[in-house]
Specification:
The chain is an alpha/beta fold. The chain is 43% helix and 20% strand. It has 6 helices and 7 strands; from the N terminus they run αββαβαβαβαββα. A 5-stranded mixed β-sheet has the order 5-4-3-6-7, with helices on both faces. A two-stranded antiparallel sheet has the order 1-2. β4, α4 and β5 form a beta-alpha-beta unit. It is globular and about 35 Å long.
Length: 166
């Protein structure tokens, strides 16, 4: 009986650890962005910034809608909290080039920092579902993590950003 209980607990723990929605801590990165500048996620967070990650597909219209909604929200919040929000637009896979990701960001009027090779992070934060939006705060805490986007999500996203700025 005791070994069955232990086995059940182990199975439950594995299920929770494999459930990407259960992520509570950011996956760090330290790499070049599409402009050749070194970016370090935990350094951004250690500096007291809230970080927005938008993982996108270039052919995804909800990704554009989300990017523009995040852009508008970010601009308003930066007016009140200058320099405290950093945003990255990251291609969801490892096949989009930096040039095409930077073009996607520019064409859609976004100011997020474009990056490529997001497959490992997309898997970490929940797998395929575009866009995937993640809001991160102090100590790498995941404040918001959702696949897909609807305009009604902006309230929860803004709340997550505000909690990170508090």
């Amino acid at each position: 009986m005791k070994s069955k209980l232990i086995s059940l607990i182990i199975i439950m723990l594995l299920a929770v650890s494999n459930n990407s929605d259960a992520q509570t801590v950011a996956k760090d990165f330290k790499r070049l962005d599409c402009s050749g500048n070194m970016q370090h996620l935990f350094a951004d967070l250690d500096a007291g910034n809230v970080v927005i990650l938008e993982f996108f597909m270039q052919s995804c219209s909800p990704c554009i809608t989300a990017g523009k909604a995040l852009e508008s929200m970010k601009a308003k919040l930066l007016a009140k909290y200058p320099g405290k929000i950093k945003a990255y637009a990251i291609g969801f896979n490892n096949t989009y080039s930096c040039a095409s990701n930077a073009n996607w960001v520019s064409t859609n009027g976004l100011t997020s920092i474009p990056m490529d090779s997001g497959a490992a992070q997309v898997a970490y934060y929940g797998g395929m579902g575009m866009p995937t939006i993640v809001i991160l705060g102090s100590y790498g805490k995941v404040l918001y993590n959702k696949q897909g986007f609807a305009n009604s999500d902006t309230t929860a996203i803004k709340s997550a950003i505000m909690s990170g700025l508090a």
